[in-house]
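Notebook p. 47: complex prediction with S-adenosylmethionine.
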Amino acid sequence: MDGRNGGPGGAALVNEDVAHNARVWNYWLGGKDYYAVDRQVGDHVVGVYPAIREVARADRAFLGRAVRYLVREAGIRQFLDIGTGLPTAENTHEVAQRIAPESRVVYVDNDPVVLAHARALLVGSPEGATDYVDADAHDPEAILRAAEGTLDFTRPVAIMLLGILNFVSETDRARAIVRRLLEAVPSGSHLAVTHPTLELGGEANAEAMRFWNEHATPPITARSRAEFASFFAGTELLEPGIVSCAHWRHATEGNGAGEPPEVAQFGAVGRKP
Ligand SMILES: C[S@@+](CC[C@H](N)C(=O)[O-])C[C@H]1O[C@@H](n2cnc3c(N)ncnc32)[C@H](O)[C@@H]1O
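Predicted complex, structure tokens below:
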């Protein structure tokens, strides 16, 4: 174990010999829950593609802006956040419940280290609800069944799929998962997605993904703008549409005129009419 607090520990069925996405993502974000192998693979990727840390930070910043928009402007009070990641600063329930304490959030992940931490750390406000489901994104039926104890599917829900559809290797399967989730929620619900792309980031990004797929798990698939757009079928894309997630509503939130550097991760939010 290698994290600054001695590694994640405590979780069953953890393979400490293979780098795993949730832990490497936590390492790139400056967290402390990772093993030596995660640091080694994470450092190699940074060596090949230094912008990867910025991708992780921009993705989390997108999460904050998207949740603030959804709560303040779209009136959303329920979130289904699939591919939660290890708890870090500004998790979905913290952002939402700070504005609307009655917000209800269901987190879903299939990583045993995330499971070990999430139940302890993702504790919400007394007025709202925060639940954690151990499930695979490939199985939307199981996710919906598990979430219905906490979320009311007759009222709008925001489905959050940030950095997770890239771990569903077939695009048709990824589309079917999103379609099934959207079917289960009523008009006024929203879909927020971030996803890596090789259309931004150049050859270094492609090299980093090749390295990841040879040395770490689960394997990652990048997608084109057109493939990313297809996940939003049946929704109305909100302004500014599909952009690098670093740019989504960045200026709108009063961050000044200057845009931050583009990162190789698309971000968008759609509304189910
Ligand atoms: C790149 S992290 C993103 C975390 C967070 N959504 C964010 O944007 O910061 C991806 C997360 O998806 C989880 N994950 C990967 N494949 C999954 C699957 N098939 N089912 C559920 N979770 C999965 C990983 O364990 C990891 O926590």
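Notes: Confidence is low (pLDDT under 50) at residues 4-12. The two ends are 48 Å apart (CA to CA).
Next step: compare against the earlier run before touching the bench.
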